[in-house]
Amino acid sequence: MSTPRSGKTRTLTVRAAGCVLWRRSPVTGTLELCLVHRPKYNDWSWPKGKLKRGEDPLVCALREVAEETGHTAVPAAELPTARYLANGRPKRVRYWAAEAVAGTFTPNDEVDRVLWLPPDAARAHLTRPDDADLVDALLAALRTSQ
To answer: Whole-model pTM?
Structure first.
């Protein structure tokens, strides 16, 4: 927090980044999206996290994917930015579409489970309803890139 000259306190926006991680099912070849379960919040969301000081948002997004899912990813289109309050502070999360190209998930303190789901199932499984908008944004981005 900082104190402007007026003496009033203003809240700084938390800056974060993440990916809507996708792959083709190794069994059926159909599109699957990766959701992460965070036991601290008991929620299902996209892999994401706070930017380190001076860190580029896309670098942060790919780092968070690797840390939370164990996968390396190839980024593509930037998706809409999410804005919401988290613990009373404004939060801004920049997202990218990213294809999972390699890796294996190992549970950790931050993420204990991942799910690879078809788009409709992923949309329904997300904890924050606003996160579901990113499913449509990803699908649109994939259509335009083909």
So the answer is: 0.90
